[in-house]
């Protein structure tokens, strides 16, 4: 790692990529990386090339790879063929365990509904709000990403390619304010005064939108006016939740609580959590064959929560994140780096142009450091929570080498 590799993709990777190009939809693949396996914060490709992973697969692998506790959990299922069940029709131990484990880190009085993905967690959050308020417009933020299913997509507003030619649910947009002195910081009040609204939904750190961190006043305004006008506040923690910001949930940095919230990625499955006062009054209002039906994912999700607690990984995320942000901040104003921002181990680095950002991401990849793009011209960094001081320094060395040259 750190050395430039000229022979990427290797022959095995090329075969996989060519098969994919021929038979599968060419979606958002970013690098010619064909993952084989991983250890700790290192991912190895199918040809044996190693990468220091500063993405944790967009937060889905908070304990890195081949973590002994996860391997042990997986081993328990190696001879249990009943690993997928109709999880809203039949009970299982894993469902109860995960519901109990997550309830210990949720705001008090919350209940959970499990589902496949982040987008479905958002869909169900929206459904819970509509149940209470009726089919009124929902408010989301410019630059928001809430998933790609059609309901969630109506409130996603990050890239036009996600929405072209699709019908939309009624919605209204506000600016996602990152500064307390933003002139639009109070816009939410006028919207709520003048319209009947089903919900307000936002991320605390816009993920796909560029790792933009909400201002304190913006978030406290959303909370204050949502309460005043009786509109549920939905916080989307699909990317930021389960520890990446150094707290279980990003909203904890703001001393507020949502009415309804989502989780996924690091949790291994999607979850819609809600204050009991928003629980649908009728049974069957929420369901799905695989809602709470993937026993392995639920068992791993429980283990993720337990290991983060036991190994004090929230503290590690705060410490390592501060170290990384400090190192990166020294590059601001040099070689087209215009901003470094974030909370804990969710860090955005903004470049002067999209072209420059894309070139540097590709160079970092060739030097063995995995990062991803976000927003118009930012790089997103979200390493596993187990990352060590040595790995942070190793990553920073590669960044210096690649970003600080022309
Ligand atoms: C904040 C947020 N919400 C929702 C989603 C959608 O999650 P999924 O891709 O699991 O459907 C994402 C995915 O990146 C996300 O970052």
Automatic annotation (TrEMBL):
One of its GO terms (molecular function) is identical protein binding. SUPFAM superfamilies: PLP-dependent transferases. It comes from Nitrosotalea sinensis. The keyword Transferase applies. Transmembrane segments: none annotated. Its cofactor is pyridoxal 5'-phosphate. Keywords: Aminotransferase, Pyridoxal phosphate, Transferase. Its EC number is 2.6.1.11. It holds the Pfam family Aminotran_3. This is Putative Acetylornithine aminotransferase. It comes from the Archaea. Belongs to the class-III pyridoxal-phosphate-dependent aminotransferase family.
């Amino acid at each position: 790692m750190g050395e430039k590799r000229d022979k990427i993709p290797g022959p095995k990777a090329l075969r996989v990529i060519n098969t994919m190009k021929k038979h599968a939809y060419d979606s958002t693949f970013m690098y010619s990386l064909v993952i084989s396996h991983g250890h700790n914060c290192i991912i190895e490709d199918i040809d044996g090339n190693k990468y220091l992973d500063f993405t944790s697969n967009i937060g889905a692998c908070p304990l890195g790879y081949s973590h002994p506790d996860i391997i042990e959990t997986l081993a328990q299922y190696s001879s249990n063929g009943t690993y997928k069940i109709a999880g809203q029709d039949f009970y299982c131990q894993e469902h109860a365990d995960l519901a109990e484990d997550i309830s210990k880190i949720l705001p008090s009085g919350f209940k959970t509904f499990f589902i496949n993905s982040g987008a479905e967690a958002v869909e169900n959050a929206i459904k819970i709000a509509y149940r209470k308020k009726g089919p009124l417009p929902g408010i989301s933020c410019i630059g928001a990403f809430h998933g790609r299913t059609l309901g969630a997509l109506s409130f996603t507003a990050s890239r036009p390619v996600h929405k072209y030619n699709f019908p939309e649910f009624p919605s209204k947009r506000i600016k996602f304010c990152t500064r307390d002195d933003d002139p639009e910081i109070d816009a939410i009040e006028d919207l709520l005064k003048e319209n009947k609204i089903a919900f307000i939904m936002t991320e605390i750190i816009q993920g796909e939108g560029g790792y933009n961190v909400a201002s304190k006043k913006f978030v406290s305004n959303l909370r204050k006016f949502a309460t005043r006008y009786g509109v549920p506040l939905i916080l989307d923690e699909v990317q930021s939740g389960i520890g990446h910001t150094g707290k279980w949930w990003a909203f904890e940095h703001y001393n507020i609580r949502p009415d309804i919230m989502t989780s996924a990625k690091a949790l291994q499955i999607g979850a819609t959590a809600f204050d009991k006062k928003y629980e649908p009054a009728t049974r069957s209002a929420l369901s799905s064959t695989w809602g709470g039906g993937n026993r392995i994912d639920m068992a791993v999700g429980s283990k993720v929560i337990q290991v983060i607690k036991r190994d004090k990984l929230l503290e590690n995320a705060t410490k390592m994140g501060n170290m990384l942000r400090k190192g990166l901040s020294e590059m601001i104003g040099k070689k087209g780096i215009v901003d470094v921002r974030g909370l804990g181990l969710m860090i955005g680095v903004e470049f002067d142009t999209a072209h420059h950002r894309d070139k540097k991401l590709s160079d970092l990849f060739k030097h063995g450091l995995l990062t991803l793009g976000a927003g118009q011209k930012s790089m997103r960094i979200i390493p596993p929570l187990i990352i060590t001081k040595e790995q942070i320094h190793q990553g920073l060395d590669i960044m210096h080498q690649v970003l600080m040259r022309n």
